[in-house]
Write a structure and sequence with these properties.
about 150 residues, alpha/beta, 5 helices, 7 strands, about 35% strand
Length: about 150
């Protein structure tokens, strides 16, 4: 959140986490922007996002995919809150050092990407790297169609 807010003066950022501890920490770290009305941090669940339809231009989920119990339902929520033409980036790690975590790769290939296609999301791209602290980082990007 802080990096986005520093890089772009004209944006509003909403953060959501299911952990009250993380929410408190993010509120503290971003206090000035929250007080200025440029940011908000709320406690909530990805499966039932507490936002109206088509509210956001972009959605990011950083290292939460491992915890998505229902990939179809959560991705449908992400699609619902995106404006037409809005984009998403979902990041995760699929290994560390010489070890590969095949389970998360299977979730992306067998559940996430097919669900995204069924929802009409487009331009879906999986991008590897850069690795961070020897973790193999991956991002899945895509877009909600215009006029949807």
């Amino acid at each position: 959140m802080a990096r986005l807010l520093r890089a772009h003066n004209h944006i509003h950022v909403t953060g959501l986490d299911r952990s009250p501890t993380i929410v408190r920490s993010a509120l503290k770290r971003n206090r000035a922007d929250v007080q200025a009305g440029r940011a908000e941090v709320i406690e909530g669940d990805l499966g039932t996002l507490p936002f109206p339809d088509a509210q956001f231009d972009r959605a990011f989920s950083i290292h939460t995919l491992y915890f998505w119990e229902d990939v179809n339902a959560i991705l449908a929520e992400v699609e619902r809150v995106l404006r037409p033409g809005g984009s998403f980036v979902i990041t995760y790690c699929d290994g560390k050092g010489d070890v590969t975590w095949d389970g998360i790769t299977a979730v992306v290939l067998e559940q996430f990407i097919p669900a995204a296609v069924r929802l009409g999301l487009t331009d879906i791209v999986v991008t590897r790297g850069p690795d961070s602290r020897d973790y193999h980082t991956v991002a899945v990007r895509g877009q909600k169609q215009q006029g949807v």
